[in-house]
Amino acid sequence: MVRTSLLTYLALGLGSTTVLAANCGQVPSQVPSQIPTGTLTPVTNFGENPTGLDLKIYVPKDLSPNPAVILALHMCGGTGPQYFQQSQYSPLADARRSFVVLYPSTPHDNHCWDVASKKSLTRDAGGDTTSLANMVRWAVSEFDADPSKVFVTGSSSGCMMSNVMAAAYPDLFSAVSCYSGVAAGCLAGGPGSSPTTSDPTCAAGHKQKTGPEWEAILKGIYGTPQGYTEGKYPKVQTWHGEADFFVNYNTNLAEQLKQWSTVHGVSFSKNATDTPNSGYTKIVFGDGSKLVGYSARGVGHTVPVHPELDLQWFGL
């Protein structure tokens, strides 16, 4: 029943791709990108793409040197162009000229990101995560982007994949801000990742683990029991609606926070009510620099994107 209802609530969109990209030279004689500006542009030659994902990119006019890169992931049933409209990062990109936004699309499994298969839950193993990472690597090279300013965000399935990308590629991303998702690895081993193909246990809120158990799952996605030891894991900001019965609020927000608080070694410190909006509660861990959650009273699936606050979390 949960899976059928969730599918009803998912946004639909259209996606297509054509070949349009340019190679870049070596710094400091970087050849300017030939990607059109001020419009959503399809790109196909971004590198290995084992799961056949589509990519569109938004580049503002008069882009500043060494920009940031944001990977923005749509919900189940959606597309990159649909999330382009929903997320509303482009007006802020135009105003600030300091970042580009990648809007990929998946044509598989009811247009849901693969957050269940071993291939996708393993770094560089040929799943959706491999294709998405190669999009990011291409963008960093294409625009001579600042590698310390690469971020991932998404809604529902896109939030689930945001957590997985941060687990698989902590060396690529500096921060996560996502909406109405689940802990990294929550859907692992299921037959699929969509409302009609996945094991419903996770979305229904019946998969609960200790912090160390969730940490071990997350670090295993990187490929070693120790996880990423060469640097820091991305800081995480995650949002969930208290009236979300599709990706159940009662446990899924708590399990995400349990997972990331263990990874970052921070404990709950305080709640800030009516922040950033009336009915929202900001859940702060430590000093709030590594992990925060937002609980939204009366909000269902999904929490609306807060682009200004996402950029603030990203430091843009």
Give the radius of gyration: 18 Å
Estimate what percentage of residues fall within beta strands.
Answer: 15-25%
Distance between the termini: 41 Å
Mean pLDDT over the full residue set: 91
State the strand order across the main sheet.
1-2-4-3-5-6-7-10-9-8
Order of helices and strands: HEEEHHEHEHEHEHEEEH
Mind summarizing the main beta sheet?
10 strands, mixed
The general outline is: globular
Low-confidence stretches: 1-29
Describe the structure.
The chain is α/β, with parallel strands linked by helices and 316 residues long. It is built from eight helices and ten strands. It has helices spanning 2-9, 80-87, 90-96, 128-142, 157-168, 211-222, 249-264, 307-314; strands at residues 40-43, 54-58, 68-73, 99-105, 150-155, 175-179, 235-241, 268-273, 280-285, 291-296. The protein has a ten-stranded mixed sheet with strand order 1-2-4-3-5-6-7-10-9-8, sandwiched between helices. A hairpin with a 5-residue loop joins strand 9 (280-285) and strand 10 (291-296). Helix 6 (211-222) crosses helix 7 (249-264). The protein is globular and about 50 Å long. The relative contact order is 0.14. Residues 1-29 have low confidence and may be disordered.
